[in-house]
Design the sequence.
């Protein structure tokens, strides 16, 4: 693995997907960011480290050859590092979160506003800094007004929405600057579902923390549990049984189908087509009920565990899963025709909330929304690991980048996931479904990288061992919503306010997943 124009000592991480890791200097930090951008790579994640030797900042890039995880140690009393926003705009909020949690800041960055700290802890308290007492009682901190960017001009006024919404959804504040109903600017304020997950990770035994990882964002529980388990297995140099990898893929594809079915119904409802909501809700409910019957949980929580999976399936389960795939495919084919032939729906979908491929590439739009804007990245295709290496996943992509393109991508991914599920069930190998892990008696680490239904889920894990006890030093869980929330602010520009729920749902980003 080489990055053109940069000389750093990259060491391979023992994972089923190509991941490399290295420590770098500040000069290498800048040079690598430039080189990755020029080569068409992307920023995946940025987070603060926590070590007894001193703080550090970490970054993960996606290149054509795989994932590169870099760590920049901060010497002595240093708490700043070179800003990555000039290279990757998506770094802005990640850097602000790292400042809130670890007390390290990007030097020279323009936006120094807090991101996760809404006043729940003092400005000089950093939950993830080494030596911080997690049990201390914090004093009451007065809330401060958040300095939203204001748009000036004749006829411009603001509409404040949230953080409490009319529906049963997570909290988020949206500040619209409008003229009439036309949106000139949208600014988001998130972080209301911050719950200290990354600090809590350091208090859990490594072999149990997969359960918390699976609850970072409930609609992606399989993806997160798999990414965490992959990271722990890499740290332990453990290979899981072939049957376990097939069952994990089965769970992941069922999670993908469940979410796409729910979104397709909600998108119809947001365009005043309640029939679509009713039909897709029925299909999704049947899908979740069978998941409960076969795997013990509607959302399949705690099914992926370190070393494999928690339960096996038998021939009866296989028959039921196949029959449901056939039934759902027939009905979704019919509903797709209804959606495409409904003039009212298409009028609301087409050209609404458009993100051009050029803008998507500049801002780092990823996952499902990225593929609908010409960003042909899908980990299952780019770096297929078992069993995707034999399933030959067909990537769904479009270039229009509007609500219609994101709807079309969802339909195509449903059909592809149904095909993959059938292939997994027909080729399910015999054997055990779990391998015991033996963690080494020294400091180690690993990373997990999985294509969830929303996009890439990434987990970086660092472990230590003392007195025979293994503990987590740092566990960073990354949701693709980090990249995609800022793009939503651009997608709404020039549209009317009543179209925002539709555009927002077409992305369907996670609040909880990026409010760690």
Sequence:
């Amino acid at each position: 693995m080489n990055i053109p124009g940069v000389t750093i000592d990259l060491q391979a991480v023992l994972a089923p997907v190509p991941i490399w890791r290295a420590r770098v200097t500040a000069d290498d930090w800048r040079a690598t960011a430039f080189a990755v951008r020029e080569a068409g790579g992307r920023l995946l994640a940025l987070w603060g480290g926590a070590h007894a030797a001193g703080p550090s900042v970490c970054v993960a890039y996606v290149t054509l050859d795989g994932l590169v995880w870099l760590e920049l140690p901060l010497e002595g009393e240093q708490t700043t590092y070179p800003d990555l926003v000039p290279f990757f705009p998506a770094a802005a909020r990640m850097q602000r979160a790292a400042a809130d949690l670890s007390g390290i800041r990007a030097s020279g960055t323009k936006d120094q506003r807090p991101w996760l700290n809404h006043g729940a802890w003092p400005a000089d308290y950093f939950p993830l800094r080494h030596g911080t007492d997690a049990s201390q009682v914090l004093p009451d901190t007065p809330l401060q007004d958040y300095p939203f960017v204001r748009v000036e001009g004749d006829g411009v006024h603001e509409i404040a929405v949230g953080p409490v919404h009319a529906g049963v959804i997570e909290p988020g504040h949206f500040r619209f600057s409008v003229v009439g109903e036309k949106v000139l600017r949208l600014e988001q304020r998130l972080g209301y579902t911050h719950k200290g997950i990354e600090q809590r990770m350091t208090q859990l035994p490594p072999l149990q923390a997969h359960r918390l990882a699976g609850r970072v964002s409930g609609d992606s529980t399989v993806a997160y549990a798999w990414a965490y388990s992959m990271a722990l297995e890499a740290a332990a140099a453990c290979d899981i049984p072939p049957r376990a990898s097939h069952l994990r893929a089965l769970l992941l594809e069922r999670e993908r189908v469940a979410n796409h079915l729910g979104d397709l119904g909600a998108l119809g409802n947001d365009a005043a087509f309640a029939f679509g909501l009713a039909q897709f809700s029925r299909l999704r409910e049947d899908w979740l009920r069978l998941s409960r019957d076969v795997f013990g949980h509607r959302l399949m929580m705690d099914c992926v565990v370190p070393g494999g999976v928690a339960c096996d399936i038998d021939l009866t389960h296989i028959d039921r899963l196949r029959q449901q795939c056939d039934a759902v495919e027939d009905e979704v084919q019919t509903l797709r025709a209804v959606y495409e032939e409904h003039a009212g729906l298409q009028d609301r979908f087409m050209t609404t909330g458009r993100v051009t491929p050029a803008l998507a590439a500049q801002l780092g739009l990823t996952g499902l929304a990225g593929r609908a804007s010409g960003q042909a990245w899908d980990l299952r295709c780019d770096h297929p690991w078992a069993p995707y290496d034999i399933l030959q996943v067909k990537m769904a992509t479009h270039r229009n980048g509007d609500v219609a393109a994101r709807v079309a991508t969802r339909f195509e991914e449903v059909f592809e996931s149904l095909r993959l599920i059938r292939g997994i069930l027909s080729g399910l190998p015999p054997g055990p479904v779990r391998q015991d892990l033996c963690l080494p008696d020294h400091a180690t680490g690993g990373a997990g990288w999985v294509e969830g239904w929303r996009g890439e889920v990434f987990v970086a894990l660092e472990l230590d061992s003392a007195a025979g006890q293994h503990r987590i030093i740092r566990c960073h869980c990354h949701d693709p919503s980090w990249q995609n929330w800022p793009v939503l602010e651009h997608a709404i520009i020039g549209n009317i306010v009543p179209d925002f729920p539709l555009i927002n749902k077409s992305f369907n980003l996670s609040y909880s997943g990026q409010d760690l």
The chain has a mean pLDDT of 94.
